[in-house]
Amino acid sequence: MKVLITGVNGLIGNEIAKEFFGKASFTVGTGRGAQRCKSLDLYVELDLEETSKIRSVLDQVKPDVIIHSGAISQVDVCEENKEKAFRINVQATKEIVSWCSDRNKRLVFFSSDFVYAGKSLSYDEQDFQSPVNYYGYTKMMAERCIYENLKNFSIIRPVLVYGLKDSAKRENIFSWLRKDLSDNKIVKIVYDQWRKPTYVDDVALATASIVFGKFTGSFNICGPQEYSVFGFAREIATILDTPLANILPVSGKDLNQAGDRPPITGFSCKRAKQYFNYNPRSLRDVFPEILDC
């Protein structure tokens, strides 16, 4: 089985590549700029904004499965650059969907908890989608394209994914806090948004279970514990043995961000547990593993 992973230079894409490398017969990654992920048989540079190039890359590689994790996921960037966000998050997905449909190939698409309005910590896969920001809207529209045009697909929705950034260019909440708190910097973290943070290795393991198990449909996955984002930051600081006083609570309304954030998002994960015994780990469970990386 030849697997192609988009966005392989990002946190999720990189971890998925490490999980599939050596297990799939051939692992291909695409991303913007130079290759940063090492766990690949082949890397092909591809900017998803250049949608006209997507088909030629897929025709060149001829994957059996496409794991589409590439996207603009920064909420404020999407809000301030809606045309660009739509090209990358929706139109690029449509190109991939069309290619898969024409050749009867498998697509695994990474969506987001932000497709929901943010009123529950136990959303399931059938709950009504009503995003509060443009990023969530683009993910919802991409999902609709998949549902309308493919049968052989899976959609994975994680929540606040964290881990060491490794070769990924962008920081995530764990890597960012580890760096700034270790430098004794003061950080402001929202106290009025609640999540169930997901360890990136658990995301990669779930992806492999879905692909090798040939499970189709949508899967909501998240971590086992609910936190305010401020509470999660304090948990990280406690484990890192850095001063809790350096983390200041702030309301999301006071940050003047371009895009709204859903106040509460988390999943029940019942479907994932039923299909492949999804068993996510807590921050304290995975911390020794993170520090060994």
From TrEMBL:
GO biological process, one term: dTDP-rhamnose biosynthetic process
One Gene Ontology molecular-function label: dTDP-4-dehydrorhamnose reductase activity
The keyword NADP is assigned to this record: yes
Ranges in a coiled coil: none
Keywords annotated in UniProt: NADP, Oxidoreductase
CDD domains: dTDP_HR_like_SDR_e
Pfam families listed in its UniProt record: RmlD_sub_bind
Domain of life: Bacteria
InterPro entries: dTDP_dehydrorham_reduct, NAD(P)-bd_dom_sf, RmlD-like-bd
Pathway membership, UniProt: Carbohydrate biosynthesis; dTDP-L-rhamnose biosynthesis
Root EC class: oxidoreductase
EC number, as in UniProt: 1.1.1.133
Domain RmlD-like substrate binding: 1-291
Catalyzed reaction equations: dTDP-beta-L-rhamnose + NADP(+) = dTDP-4-dehydro-beta-L-rhamnose + NADPH + H(+)
Function noted in UniProt: Catalyzes the reduction of dTDP-6-deoxy-L-lyxo-4-hexulose to yield dTDP-L-rhamnose.
Similarity section: Belongs to the dTDP-4-dehydrorhamnose reductase family.
The protein's name in its UniProt record: dTDP-4-dehydrorhamnose reductase
Species assigned in the record: Salibacter halophilus
